[in-house]
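Worked example 3 (structure in, sequence out).
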């Protein structure tokens, strides 16, 4: 029994295994220790990314350590690893595509945590980017508008190669939005336009300043024409009503709230005009007019 333990303890392979276990444990302990004290020296907004970088470096160090310890063994298994690698690559092609997607996301900046994106038919805010999956806090679904519905969705990173990636906040963190206001024929159109312009500039006018700065940066980065970011009000009409179209830029997270504020203030101001300006609708208006009396004579000879 004593000889068995001596052989077991002095076996080179066993020594490498023990060294590997202790080395990996030590590296993981260091990663955990560093992550625990990150919050003392780094802002909250930067802690997530720093932890990801620290974890990634730790995993690379673990792999490198194992490679150094077992380097003599690995050189003898080159052919076997080649054959096994081909089979593994075929069986795990979706996993490999997801890892490639993670590399593309990290290097090409398709999106980052905090961005609002549409990926794989799911819209939401990116809350985590893992090696295989991206995690979103979903928006929409059975909830109208851009509000969270409470579901957390994990999407394979391979989707960045299969479908378009819609990013609502990268480079230009604003959206253009439009509101249509139908006004009755016969209303004071000049007054209506003035009311709408004043309200729109009051509610979302400040966004145009920051949007103009962001757009200048995009023009430098991409081949794209300058765009008008100031609020505009245009008019058109048909046989039913006159229609004002309001176009403006707004923060992608506040689109619904600002639209509600614009609608509310426009309705309040139109009501104050006492029917000088009225909202049109598809309902039929029937007016009853009192007429003067008249006599009808029927000639029986006809």
């Amino acid at each position: 029994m004593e000889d068995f333990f001596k052989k077991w303890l002095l076996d080179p392979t066993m020594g490498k295994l023990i060294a590997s276990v202790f080395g990996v444990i030590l590296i993981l302990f260091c990663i955990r220790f560093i992550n625990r004290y990150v919050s003392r020296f780094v802002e909250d907004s930067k802690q997530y990314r720093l932890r990801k970088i620290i974890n990634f470096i730790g995993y690379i160090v673990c792999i490198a350590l194992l490679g150094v310890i077992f380097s003599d063994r690995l050189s003898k298994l080159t052919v076997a690893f080649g054959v096994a690698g081909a089979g593994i690559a075929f069986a795990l092609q979706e996993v490999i595509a997801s890892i490639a997607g993670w590399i593309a996301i990290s290097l090409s900046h398709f999106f980052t945590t905090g961005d609002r994106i549409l990926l794989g038919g799911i819209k939401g805010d990116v809350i985590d980017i893992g090696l295989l999956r991206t995690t979103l806090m979903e928006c929409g679904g059975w909830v109208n508008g851009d509000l969270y519905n409470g579901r957390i969705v994990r999407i394979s990173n391979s989707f960045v190669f299969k479908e378009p990636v819609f990013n609502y906040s990268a480079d230009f963190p604003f959206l253009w939005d439009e509101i249509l206001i139908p006004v009755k024929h016969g209303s004071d159109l000049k007054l209506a336009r003035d009311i709408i312009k004043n309200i729109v500039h009051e509610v979302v006018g400040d966004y145009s300043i920051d949007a103009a700065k962001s757009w200048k940066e995009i023009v430098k980065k991409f081949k794209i024409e300058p765009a008008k970011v100031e609020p505009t009000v245009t008019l058109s009409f048909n046989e039913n009503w006159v229609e004002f179209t309001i176009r403006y830029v707004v923060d992608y997270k506040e689109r619904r709230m600002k639209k509600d504020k614009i609608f509310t203030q426009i309705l309040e101001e139109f009501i104050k005009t006492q029917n000088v300006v009225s909202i049109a609708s598809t309902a039929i208006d029937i007016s009853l007019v009192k007429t003067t009396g008249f006599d009808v004579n029927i000639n029986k000879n006809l």
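Notes: The mean pLDDT is 79. The longest helix spans residues 44-69.
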